[in-house]
Amino acid sequence: MIKDLNVAGVLPASDLARARDFYRDKLGLEPENPEASDNLMYKCANGTAFLLYETPNAGTAKNTQLGWQSTDLDQDMADLRARGVVFEEYDFPGLKTENGVATMPTGERGAWFLDTEGNILSISTM
């Protein structure tokens, strides 16, 4: 069944070289297929992964497209900020961030940032 398979996210990039620099320099990630010219595969913990592929459609989604689960959000955010990641501030009905962090009624916390391609990414506690 599909529920027993690993899942991988897919993100668009209008400039794959620029995106590669962001994921390396800001997030500390290196692609599994560094020689590829039209897509980059990144592996993360526990068999999770995501693919960046080149397309002119990048940056058009207005929703969170990929998220990492953190066990220490404050430390992970501090590390990302030290690398130059800027967290978004939101003030919507049901979601307000303070210093980049939203606290949900359940006690979970999350933060969002953009990559160079306009993709909305998140890091949160679960």
From TrEMBL:
SUPFAM superfamilies: Glyoxalase/Bleomycin resistance protein/Dihydroxybiphenyl dioxygenase (SSF54593). Gene3D superfamilies: 2,3-Dihydroxybiphenyl 1,2-Dioxygenase, domain 1. InterPro entries: Glyas_Bleomycin-R_OHBP_Dase, Glyas_Fos-R_dOase_dom, VOC_core. Residues 4-126 form the VOC domain. This is VOC family protein. It comes from Arthrobacter terricola.
